[in-house]
Design goal:
Helix content is 45%, strand content 14%. It is of the alpha/beta class and 321 residues long. Helix 1 packs parallel to helix 2 and helix 5 packs across helix 10.
């Protein structure tokens, strides 16, 4: 898909739809209708029309991932946030054609049943085992925290920069990803003042197949979504990626994050105040045994359980019969 423009405007949304999303949808539709299968698995509700078309043409079973609560995505300038305004009203129509809807947290099961979906399965949105890079031990040198993914408002980066002023150079923060040029410039200017420039490293954009290796280049992944923004209160895909790779996380203390990280012992939790973030990062740095224990648990959990195959195996086997 052609890279979408990330400037926040209605004109940008219209341009992205016309030049990025529609051409990609046409290519996907052409591939989809030519491919016979008894199951069509659609991983995002904006693509649901493709699954419905395959079901009509191929008589397949339609599995739809509902990874976010409908209507909650509100990323500034995003075509998905524009779609979110009509998503809730479309769910009733989707419930008539979807055989199984999947959700990533228990609290989303009931609301989908209420919207008319006949079968709703709890399936964590873990990456496939082939996505993972070969595991590597924790690196030597400074304790490295890494944030990976698109850079936009609501990921706690401003708070992270403020926390960096309170850290020593033996803690490093690597930030990988792309964002709107004006927003990236503002963040870099913010981090260039004072001590933060000695701690934060802006690494730029990486390809999707480099994400797993990037987590392994650090000690701890950062998942710091702002709790005040609608849609951020679910279980983050970034936690799934980091743990599946074999690294622990430092995550924002949101309810679903708290339940997952605490249950499996694969990281630490913090609110988004700079003082608490810096304090937790210093504690992690000062406790190498605790860091290794969390990393070992993340590796075992990711290797033995947290993969797309293990999450979907029972569901797909049932539908294939």
């Amino acid at each position: 898909m052609r890279h979408p423009d990330m400037r926040p405007s209605k004109a940008t949304i219209a341009r992205n739809i016309a030049l990025s999303y529609v051409p990609a949808l046409i290519r996907m539709a052409n591939e989809l209708v030519r491919t016979p299968a008894n199951i069509v698995h659609v991983t995002s509700t904006p693509l649901a029309a493709l699954g419905a078309a395959h079901k009509a043409i191929r008589r397949s079973n339609f599995v739809l991932d509902v990874t976010e609560r409908p209507g909650t995505v509100a990323a500034k300038g995003s075509a998905f946030s524009a779609y979110a305004k009509v998503e809730t009203s479309l769910m009733k129509a989707l419930s008539r054609v979807v055989d199984v809807a999947t959700v990533v947290v228990p609290g989303d099961v009931g609301p989908l049943h209420h919207k008319g979906f006949r079968q709703v399965a709890l399936v964590r949105n873990a990456p496939s085992s082939s996505w993972r890079s070969p595991w590597e031990p924790l690196p030597t040198g400074p304790t490295r925290f890494v944030l990976v993914g698109s850079i936009f408002e609501g990921r706690g980066i401003e708070n992270l920069i403020q926390a960096a002023h309170l850290l020593q150079d033996d803690i490093q923060i690597d930030i990988y990803g792309r964002g709107r040029p004006d927003y990236m410039q503002a963040l870099k200017e913010m981090s260039a003042t004072g001590h933060a420039e000695d701690v934060i490293n802006w690494r730029g954009e990486i390809a999707p197949d480099q994400v797993s290796a990037t987590y392994l280049s650090a000690h701890v992944g950062l998942v710091l979504y702002d709790p005040t923004i609608p849609g951020n209160d679910g279980l983050s895909n970034k936690i799934m990626e980091c743990i599946s790779t074999g690294r622990p996380v430092l995550a924002g203390d949101l309810p679903e994050n708290h339940a997952f990280v605490s249950q499996h012992g694969v990281g630490w939790l913090t609110d988004l105040s700079p003082d608490n973030m810096a304090r937790t990062m210093r504690e992690i740095h000062a406790s190498p045994d605790s860091l290794k224990a969390n990393a070992d648990r993340a590796r075992e959990f990711g290797r033995n359980e947290l993969t797309w195959e293990s999450e979907f195996d029972n569901l797909l086997r049932k539908l294939s019969n």
